[in-house]
């Protein structure tokens, strides 16, 4: 998927003894989006933006050792060992001849190293230079920044596509705001800026600017622009949209004191697991401290400062726990951490309250289970049928205020909440809106300038196609039961060789809260990879009957 960017200059940071000036170059091909102000909460912003950088450079994928040099040496030695073995079986004259050939080979190897050595050295130095001085060349996309009437927020993705980071800063973070224009843009963000961010000090005046001049310079200054064409993998965009969908799912939430998060990070630093399971088990009992059990060494942390206020006893396990070390830098400036767990082996979100800033860390089920290829959380998000005209009206109404709670939006438009959830869920999956988990509002955030190719991104999931086929062939029989919490659906689905029994509970916001099935896909994966076609078929059949 090809993305075109055109930056008005280059992002820069100018630092001296008295001040720091940060100027971000936005994408001039998008609608004008800019912001000019002076930082007020300097240290907290420095720590938060640095933690966002930790997400960008994060890569938890297994990296095997490079054995190229060893294999090359082994191939050369094999010839020598073979010649020695053969020489032992021959007469002395053969041994002498082999010694001469071996000496000739050594001379050839030395000559090859002399000729190719400078090239190999220059190649290694070049990539070392890129990694140290221009590390953004190693990443696939510049961060996304959005300006809203109440806040400015940054979003980014890790290299392994398993970790999502978002930094929200309301306008109290700035003591002077000269001008701004709401919208979403990509910014030219070099990794060298990380070192410059570390120079922010409380006694230094810090200017923060998403440069508006990039949109007003005439074509006579065309040489000042920097054009970038990035061929993005579909997985990066799809992962971004799956994060947005996962945020709308029902969760179990509780608060953690910063010292409890410190204890988690300390334990992860002190102990290195060698065998599985490498998980954290959250043991939640009503009105009791949150308990964390670290497997496989079964070390327990009792969070005495953090009491679970839920009504049910729950045990939820998460994997890929070392990604939580990204929160380490936020501990000194955080007031509290709020944890949202979708379920065992499913995504989890950690929101750090930094006063006038909020930092959201979103983790997939485990490190190797990235957001894009495995979890189809869009299938579990609100899926109410909404016609195109109504959906567009709801989107236009949201754009008037840029952000709003679904119930307030439904009341303003004199429509039901389910319709609003269904419409906004569709736009979330199209990259035009995002759900703010912290404030419980939907926000306008257009991920791309051009409409995203939804079919190319496979939001028409193959299992969804199979479910529609089952419904069309009248192979689905259901029974429903309405409760105060939502709708319970049970049914029988005729397969090619056997019948399947499935059930699903849909809450009042049209989201799948619970589901079961006796098919092989569900038994093997539960909901880790999204619902099976039989669960989806129950939902489609119920919607058509309704």
From TrEMBL:
Keyword terms of this UniProt record: Metal-binding, Zinc, Zinc-finger
Domain SWIM-type: from-to ranges: 502-543
Single Gene Ontology MF annotation: zinc ion binding
A Pfam family of this chain: SWIM
PROSITE patterns according to UniProt: ZF_SWIM (PS50966)
UniProt-recorded name of the protein: SWIM zinc finger family protein
Lineage: Bacteria, Pseudomonadati, Bacteroidota, Cytophagia, Cytophagales
């Amino acid at each position: 998927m090809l993305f075109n960017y055109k930056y008005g200059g280059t992002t820069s940071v100018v630092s001296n003894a008295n001040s720091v000036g940060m100027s971000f170059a936005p994408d001039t091909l998008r609608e004008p989006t800019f912001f000019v102000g002076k930082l007020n909460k300097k240290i907290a912003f420095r720590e938060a933006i640095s933690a966002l950088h930790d997400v960008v450079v994060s890569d938890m994928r297994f990296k095997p050792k490079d054995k190229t040099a060893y294999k090359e040496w082994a191939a050369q030695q094999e010839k020598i060992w073979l010649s020695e073995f053969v020489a032992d079986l021959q007469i002395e004259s053969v041994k002498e001849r082999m010694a001469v050939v071996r000496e000739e080979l050594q001379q050839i190897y030395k000559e090859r190293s002399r000729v190719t050595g400078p090239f190999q050295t220059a190649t290694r130095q070049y990539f070392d230079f890129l990694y140290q001085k221009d590390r953004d060349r190693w990443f696939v996309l510049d961060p996304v920044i959005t300006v809203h009437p109440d806040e400015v927020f940054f979003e980014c993705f890790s290299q392994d596509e398993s970790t999502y980071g978002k930094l929200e800063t309301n306008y109290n973070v700035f003591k002077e705001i000269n001008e701004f224009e709401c919208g979403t843009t990509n910014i030219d963000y070099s990794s060298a800026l990380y070192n410059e961010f570390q120079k922010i000090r409380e006694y230094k005046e810090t200017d923060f600017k998403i440069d508006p001049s990039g949109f007003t310079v005439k074509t006579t200054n065309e040489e000042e622009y920097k054009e970038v064409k990035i061929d993005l993998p579909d997985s990066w965009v799809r992962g971004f949209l799956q994060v947005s969908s996962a945020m709308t799912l029902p969760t179990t939430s509780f608060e953690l004191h910063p010292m409890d998060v410190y204890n988690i990070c300390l334990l992860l630093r002190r102990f290195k697991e060698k065998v599985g399971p490498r998980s954290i088990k959250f043991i939640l009992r009503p009105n009791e401290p949150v308990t964390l059990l670290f497997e496989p060494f079964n070390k327990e942390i009792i969070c005495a400062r953090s009491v679970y206020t839920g009504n049910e006893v729950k045990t939820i396990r998460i994997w890929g726990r070392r990604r939580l070390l990204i929160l380490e830098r936020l501990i000194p400036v955080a007031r509290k951490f709020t944890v949202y767990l979708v379920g065992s082996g499913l995504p989890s979100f950690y929101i750090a309250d930094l006063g006038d800033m909020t930092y959201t860390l979103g983790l997939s089920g485990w490190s190797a289970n990235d957001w894009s290829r495995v979890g189809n959380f869009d299938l579990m998000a609100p899926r109410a049928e909404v016609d195109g005209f109504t959906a567009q009206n709801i989107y236009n109404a949201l754009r008037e205020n840029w952000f709003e709670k679904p119930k307030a939006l439904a009341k303003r438009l004199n429509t039901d909440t389910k319709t609003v959830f269904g419409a906004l869920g569709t736009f979330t999956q199209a990259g035009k809106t995002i759900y703010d988990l912290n404030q419980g509002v939907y926000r306008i955030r257009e991920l791309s300038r051009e409409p995203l190719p939804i079919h190319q991104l496979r939001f028409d999931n193959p299992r969804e196609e199979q479910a529609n086929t089952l419904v069309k062939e009248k192979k689905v029989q259901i029974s429903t039961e309405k409760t105060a919490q939502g709708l319970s659906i049970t049914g029988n689905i005729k397969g090619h060789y056997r019948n399947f029994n499935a059930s699903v509970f849909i809450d009042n916001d049209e989201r799948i809260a619970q589901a079961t099935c006796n098919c092989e896909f569900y038994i093997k994966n539960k909901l880790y990879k999204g619902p099976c076609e039989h669960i989806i078929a129950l939902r489609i059949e119920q919607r058509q009957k309704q």
